[in-house]
Amino acid sequence: MALIVQKFGGTSVGSVERIEQVAAKVKKFRDKGDDIVVVVSAMSGETNRLIDLAKQISEQPVARELDVMVSTGEQVTIALLAMALIKIGVPAVSYTGSQVRILTDSAHTKARILQIDSQHIHKELKAGRVVVVAGFQGVDEDGNITTLGRGGSDTTGVALAAALKADECQIYTDVDGVYTTDPRVVAKAQRLDKITFEEMLEMASLGSKVLQIRAVEFAGKYSVPLRVLHSFQEGPGTLITLDEEESMEQPIISGIAFNRDEAKLTIRGVPDTPGVAFKILGPISAANVEVDMIVQNVAHDNTTDFTFTVHRNDYHNALQVLESIARDMGAREVIGDVDIAKVSIVGVGMRSHAGVASRMFEALAKENINIQMISTSEIKVSVVIEEKYLELAVRALHTAFELDAPAGKGE
Ligand code: ADP
Ligand code: ASP
Ligand code: MG
User: Which residues form the signal peptide (predicted)?
Assistant: First the structure.
């Protein structure tokens, strides 16, 4: 008998019919004798709807109140799924994050899980019930409701699996696994049988929203066996594995990730003295803005141009801070650009192969796509390009790194 945590995403619980289908699926596992804890997201579109409502009151709603509201989406689906299970003869009970006591810090809208009390869940399982837990939400020390950031139900699933020492965490979604790139953008993308935690972490942090990055971090840290599967189609899905050996036989590049959520800021003609980076990025970080890629050039006239990217949500805030820095430092001008995108190739195979980056640049050059920024690590190369070329770039790279499915195999 195994203990399995199964997480179902928004589209998988997007209607009453689908919730009933999920209940039937859970029943099948339970009939085999497994103990099941189910984590659900809100119905698809619901979290966005709630956020839109809040924004009608205020452009920047108070984070505590936003959490009180957006967490209701998951409260609806846990109750509906528990009802659906009970209706087909499966004893079930729903739990909100605070009822379980998923303790988080107090960083509303992006809280981190600190501790999970597994006591209630173990008791319910022992009594023969399926436990249905609300994803995406927790509670802080003072009893305030918190949420874990968009896509956070994945993290609830994995964190629960770690706390309960589950045999496997299964992430059920609307695709049948992790693909070489988003199958909605590249029809020839291929499902991967396996991907390493390290690669999945890069893919998630570089924009592949199939798994929330913190979920992958948790799974790696606590060695939770993690699998991504289709909610309503049979298949092996994708196993996220610690085992790098196997994946060395795979192509050099495992996948291509992309991100449209960034914006680029440039401060030009800054007098080039020691401490420039600190003088620019210190106030940016003090304004709580996270910086991603950074490029600094030295010009001929002893001034430098300094460019960096931030999340698009932070763009206006960062621009304001940068304009005031520019005045203080006597810089020539500040330029902002939101029409950019970041494309990244990811693979542990890069460690043992030279020339990967130049192959990437060649593929982009052939399509006449200008590269604005570059950053590399041991297992990834990222470039910033004009947003309108994003899909073209991803397709070109997918072909250049021989990731395209053989004819007839793509979706
Ligand atoms: P859920 O609501 O189930 O959490 P998400 O929308 O968060 O589902 O994640 C699944 C989506 O992730 C897919 O529909 C797909 O478009 C997207 N996606 C992005 N990159 C990838 C990838 N490399 N492999 C599979 N899916 C991906
Ligand atoms: N409902 C939340 C969201 O839309 C959490 C999740 O779906 O994982 O971001
Ligand atoms: Mg998701």
Answer: none
User: Where on the phi/psi map is residue 170: left (φ > 0), alpha (ψ -120 to 50), or beta?
Assistant: beta
State the architecture of 3-174 in CATH terms: 3-Layer(aba) Sandwich (3.40)
pTM to 2 decimals? 0.93
C-beta of 213 in contact with ligand 2 (< 6 A): no
Q: Which residues contact 153 (CB under 8 A, 6 or more apart)?
A: 7, 9, 39, 40, 41, 74, 135, 136, 212
User: How far is the C-alpha of 232 from the C-alpha of 22, rounded, in Å?
Assistant: 8
Give residue-wise pLDDT tens across range 163-217. Answer: 999 999 999 999 999 999 999 999 999 999 999 999 999 999 999 999 999 999 9
Q: CB-hemisphere CA count at 13 Å for 22?
A: 36
Binding site as annotated, residues for ATP: 7-10, 173-174, 179, 184, 209-210
Query: Strands (DSSP E) along 9-161, which ranges?
Result: 35-40, 92-95, 102-104, 113-116, 130-134, 137-139, 145-147
